[in-house]
Amino acid sequence: MDYKEVIETRYNREAWQKLLYDIFHNKVQFWRTPISIKVNSRLAKEALSLGKISLSDGETIAVYEVELNDKVDIERNRRGIRDMLTSDWRNMGYAGAFVFGYRKDESVLRFSYVSETWGFNKQGEYEKVSTDTMRYTYLLGKGRGCRTAIDQFTTLKSSKQTLSDITAAFSVEALTKQFYGELFDWYLWAIAPATGISFPNNTSIEDDDREDIETKIIRMITRIMFVWFIKQKNLVPNRLFDPEYIHTILKDFDEKSTTNGNYYNAILQNLFFATLNRAIEDEEGNKRKFATASKRDIKTLYRYEELFTISEQQVIDMFAEVPFLNGGLFECLDKTKTIDGVEQAYNFDGFSRNDRTFADGRYRYRAVVPNALFFDEKRGLFSILNKYNFTVEENTPEEQQVALDPELLGKVFENLLGAYNPETKETARNQSGSFYTPREIVKYMVDESLIAYLGESDFNRSLFAPNFKYEAAHVEEYKSIAEKLKAVKVLDPACGSGAFPMGLLNRMAEVLQRIEPNTNVYEQKLAIIENCLYGSDIQSIAAQITKLRFFISLIVDCERDASKPNFGIPTLPNLETKFVAANSLIAKKKQDIQRNLFENPEIEPTKEELAKVRHEHFMAKSASAKRRLREKDQELRKKLAKLLADDNNFAPEDAIQLAAWNPYDQNAVSKFFDPEWMFGLSEHPFDIVIGNPPYIQLQNNGGELAKLYADCGYKTFARTGDIYCLFYERGQQLLKDGGHLCYITSNKWMRAGYGEKTRDFFAKSTNPQLLIDFAGVKIFESATVDTNILLFSKSANQHKTWCAVTNKQNKDSVKNLSVFVQQQGVECDFSSSDSWVILSPIEQSIKRKIEAVGTPLKDWDIQINYGIKTGFNDAFIINTEKREEILSNCQTDEERSHTAELIRPILRGRDIKRYGYEWADKYLIATFPSRHYDIEQYPAVKQYLLSFGKERLEQTGKTYTINGEKVKARKKTNNKWFETQDSINYWEDFFKPKIVWGNLNLKGAYSYAPEEMFVNAPSPFLVTSNIAILHILNSKIADYYIRSLGVTRNGGYFEYKPMFVEKLPIPQIGLDNLCTYPVNPSKEMEIDIDYKVYQLYGLSSQEIDYIENRES
Description:
It is built from 42 helices and 36 strands. The model is unreliable at 120-124, 420-433 and 593-598 (pLDDT under 50). It has a 9-stranded mixed β-sheet with strand order 14-13-12-15-16-18-17-19-20, sandwiched between helices. Strands 1-2-3-4-5-6-9 form a 7-stranded mixed β-sheet. The longest helix is centred in the middle third of the chain and has 24 residues, at 623-646. Helix 5 (147-157) packs antiparallel against helix 6, helix 8 runs antiparallel to helix 15 (407-416) and helix 15 (407-416) runs antiparallel to helix 22. By secondary structure, the chain is α+β, with helices and mostly antiparallel strands. Strand 25 (912-913) and strand 26 form a beta hairpin.
């Protein structure tokens, strides 16, 4: 059947019934006569039940047809439309419904799948997670792309046709992945040198035209995608992207050309910089026009008239349908001597009238993007974009249009930054440590932060509930909540592409619409943006993309009206002083001295004047007005910095740096972050700090970051730590007293050694209110890191943290996190720097009993050590045959005797089993530095070791070139070339009875090892003759306790480090019974041992059952 013919035409019931029958065959049943369903007449003229589909998993979904009311605002009434028929299909016992929503005077069809929230349970069964409804909608009909729908419906046809298959067919994630895959291929093509893309950069240098080419191409992609989104509002004509039309207006236009870039210059650059960036007619009467001045190259005027076949006026008329949006939106980033006063011109965008070239013919001042990059039939950018539907509405977890929404801008940014870098052999994302936060997580964190700010109560929580209903009796409470919401100050200090600021904007606007239903949405959003939301990121392009998403969020509430000035589209705000490019972790500290009794009276008026200038700039429309305000801003910054320095607020050098910061330079990144200076706020201004800070180890790149932040005074700083720990502390610094911070980060701080300072900081300097550990559940598609969410307030620790743990068995809990946390949460008390482990009530009881009865192993007179680290096992660990060969090469009996003493049997981690080991006939050449051996006394050993090359054995850390090959020496130590890497001062312990175990295991496996048996690192060992300790370590209760202290790796593996094992409390009395069992007991004896250990710790039968039946 030809699905395209049905999907791309007006809704026809009979045709769609045939399409559904083609997909589901006998599973679909249509009623002979459609059944009328009573619905809200304000929303729909008529609703009909057409039939049902019985799925292969036993579930059934209804099929409805709804003629929507002509006047109903579909976007404003999303929930009403979504739940219009819910009671009907629920009463029938169905799992969901297909709904055909249409209007007779429109060609568009809304084909929706409505259901409750479903997910996979522990047994792998698809079950209902929540009764909250969700709607997934295809916008189909005449003139709309249908490739996605056809592909998904075809896949559904060949599937098992279960409820989960239905959900997959309406999956926005699948669509986004498909699109990004194609876009990523285009990006790799675009950045390749062979394509010939170039941007001038420093116009005096010939060899830098491809410098930072990746960022420039990402910027170009996001600008084009922004245009593609606003095309959905008919703000840009489609013909500007139609090669047939372009042929009629451009000279020598060849859409297949791999060298000529006249389309990018003449059409896209003029669209970006001289149309969207310039008023049709500004306050001073200046209209859009071509540049004519010979000396001043004004970047908001049209150019490239020589590339057109039509006149200048016709070019202006061609672009006249496009409204002016904002001067900062597509501001040209070129810096010229005449306009910007710079010493050297930098053409980052290359929008230039100057057609001078270098000797090889490349433009000196202009950007070059060959036409084929856009128009190639198979892989051109426009060919890709034309395959997909776009929507200007940001999807929500409850309401998703199966189309590409503005969140895609963020995902594209985060993912393209992850493109493989062949020079560093790592991804840029790994360098920046950024990962895009899923919308479900953003929504949950935004809701919890705002509720915490408003005050935890059932009433405040109801404002965010899906089933909220306005009640006139609460009008005064609504008014109070609205005032408080409008006054909130929120910062994302690592905003990336704006996931959290956008989530806040949409959620705050939604809640305010609920409690102030008659307010103008556009004005409401504008006020939230100007007064409530702030962001900072160390990448300038991130701040730019955040701004683009905010512009789209405002445009969605505008409608084109040709009868009004600028087609009825309001001028969008300038957001340069809302989202800044800066290093959020570096603060400019005020002087730690006694303040002057009388502050300079000029300081406060200057601050107020600067705030006034920035408020005017926020809504400035013309280029001249913005230029005037920016010059005034710079003048006031310099004046204020001097006043503050003279008044001893800041050190003079800091004052100079403050004055030099220019919020309007989109290429610059500030080395510091100061909200008072950058946003005009107080010293600790924020009610909420929220975000997903980067995850980067401070010791990466030779410890570059560790050096940068070592002297910043962070209590959480650890050289082996991670940068997100510093973001926690910096966020706390920026909060008001009583303010709230909510981050999603790596969960390693909860148990890792480097997190000790961070845990101590949380326990002593914050009140941890909420902690969710996503143990083993992958939150970030592009990251393998395990994560958690922490919400704390800047107040005294109340020792009542509400906690929840997800795992692979309940991984779908993230789809409805609020319900999961409410149902599965437990209260925990975190009051120290010890590992933070989330335990259920029964787990807390077990822990208390273990710790009450036992003494930690580290407090016994027992030392746990790692095995031997040689630094080069291939040389120092040998088999029996090699041992015999070395001994046979000894020249005397005396040499053979002391050489045999030097070569000792050794166990590797893989050889050690539970209650036993399988020795692999391996030996260690035990030249421990602590024994001070003279290698000349062991000529046979020396001869053998030298066969590997002395350079390889040296402990210098150097790299040598031998016979054309690079040879890396062992790491740098003070030890000699023939010695093991570690000194092994405890070598005598190997000659004593000991317990050994493998470092990495699925379950703890401890064994007794005989005297004189050595063990290889990283396997640890402890010296004891107490057999009871061996049995306790191998018990289930010990494994349970030890594993609770650390993080389980992928595949269920755990690192049984000494730092965990030594914390196991072991009773010091009552061990006699355990000592009667042998060192290698039978399986029946092991069961007896486990139950005797349970009795030692005093566990109840319920607690024993819990440990016996827990899943590994």
